[in-house]
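=== How it folds ===
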Amino acid sequence: MKKCIDRVSSLSHKNILFIVEGGKTEPSLLRRLNKIIGFENYKIFSYNTCIYELFHELNKDDDLDLILTLKESAQSTSEKQILSQKYVSIYLIFDFDPHYQKYSKSTLKDMIEYFNNSYDRGKLYINYPMMESFRHLTTMPDHDFLHRKVSMEGLTKYKETVGHESSYTEMNKYNYPIVTQIIAHHLIKYHYLTKAKPFSPTLNEFENFNATTDKKLLDIQDHQVQNGWISIINTSVFYIVDLKPKSFFGAQLTNFEL
């Protein structure tokens, strides 16, 4: 990730576009998180199908024009209006979906490589196994989270599992300290899986997360799939750190480890 400053205030007059897979969970969570961090200038476009279908559509055009491709499939006037605006940054948020018939590690790697910068073509975030992984925590700090997994057989009931095991299912109770700690858990797990470091990355280390480390995480998850497991980790919430890096990496994260 390229060097950045706190962008919520400096880009307060600019729009940011979130392209999400679902029409309910993702938009609800994004609206809540953006309200907590005080960011209002954004739009959400729900693609309503998986990342593999998006990649298939993009491949019909040699130029891989994301916005144009989405606009052609937009169903309503409001969707077309969203995709007709100019955006300073784009975030794509999709689920891992290893059960999907078109699942392909190489396809995901191509997507990660292409969509690797929110300022340019967009930044792809993959959630393992799905968006609900954001709140799959039982306490703060949750020391078991570092090694928390879900079996392939358990994917069909994963949302129900999170509902039973999570202590953070009610989004209306989220506040900045809670959200910061939740994100910290996912950052630490990312750091642990990709760098074997079970503690929070520094701002400099976060800025050096890139397509290479994202693909390494994908390799690890794909290998685990072959053994019937997926490590629980949500990367989409890293957009908050991308928007407010200096604020996020404050004193409250000092020596935070699992």
Remarks:
- Residues 7-253 form one domain.
